């Protein structure tokens, strides 16, 4: 997928080793890491960026993309597909550099990526978990056809606190051949 969105200003493409400087510029931010898993730490060091770009943190062979604005990586989106009896499901994750928040960018990116990745991987279910303290991410999902299914209470311990996780999913009817 090499999608150009928002009039061509925003693009998605696979991560490249030379994205390290751009990644550091936007990822090393407590406000970004706050809503994410501890695989996305703060401080976010050069070693963290290099390990990520080498595919040591998450599997970059899956549809995991850098989000580019005006040609420079400043965020990411990807899925972690399920295996075996979970093979028709995948979990969605995304982030954007704080400088670009509140402009509708992630809403537009998820609008393009979610249907594409569900068709590409033959998924019946795309799920996402959002900390209760992250209403912006919940809005992105609700504006993109995800339904809220419930809350995993006190399921995540991060930054010294237990967090409730709000569970969202978007469904797709599988073709008869699946
Ligand atoms: C979550 C995140 C991706 C949102 O990206 P974004 O491009 O700023 O999102 P958008 O501008 O497309 O949409 C944000 C929506 O949230 C709303 N919003 C923002 N702050 C809010 C708040 N405190 N309470 C309620 N709604 C809020 C906005 O008004 C907007 O909704 P609207 O269009 O109905 O007005 C971005 O903040 C981010 O990367 N955060 C850090 C990483 C993260 O949390 N990732 C998600 C993990 S589940």
What's this entry about, in short?
The chain has five helices and eight strands; from the N terminus they run ββαααβββαβαββ. The chain has 178 residues and is an alpha+beta fold.
Radius of gyration: 16 Å
Low-confidence stretches: none
CATH architecture heading of the domain at 4-123: 3-Layer(aba) Sandwich
Q: Measure the end-to-end span.
A: 22 Å
- In CATH terms, the superfamily of the domain at 4-123 is Gcn5-related N-acetyltransferase (GNAT)
Q: Which molecules other than protein and nucleic acid are bound?
A: coenzyme A
Number of strands: 8
Largest sheet: 8 strands, mixed
Shape: globular
Mean pLDDT: 95
Order of strands in the sheet with the most strands?
Answer: 1-2-3-4-5-6-8-7
Q: What is the strand content?
A: 25-35%
Q: Specify the helix fraction band.
A: 25-40%
């Amino acid at each position: 997928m090499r999608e150009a969105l928002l009039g061509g200003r925003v693009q998605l493409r696979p991560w490249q080793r030379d994205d390290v400087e751009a990644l550091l510029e936007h990822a090393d931010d407590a406000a970004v890491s706050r809503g994410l898993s501890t695989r996305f730490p703060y401080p976010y060091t050069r070693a963290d960026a290099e390990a990520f770009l080498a595919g040591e943190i998450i599997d970059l062979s899956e549809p995991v993309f850098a989000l580019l604005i005006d040609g420079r990586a400043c965020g990411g989106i990807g899925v972690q597909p399920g295996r075996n009896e979970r093979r028709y499901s995948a979990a969605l994750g995304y982030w954007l550099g704080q400088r670009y928040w509140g402009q509708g960018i992630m809403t537009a990116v998820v609008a393009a990526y979610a249907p594409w990745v569900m068709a590409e991987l033959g998924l019946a279910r795309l799920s996402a978990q959002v900390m209760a303290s992250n209403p912006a991410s919940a809005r992105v999902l609700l504006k993109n056809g995800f339904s809220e299914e419930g809350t995993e209470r006190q399921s995540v311990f991060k930054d010294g606190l237990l967090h409730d996780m709000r569970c969202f999913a978007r469904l797709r009817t599988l073709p008869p051949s699946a």
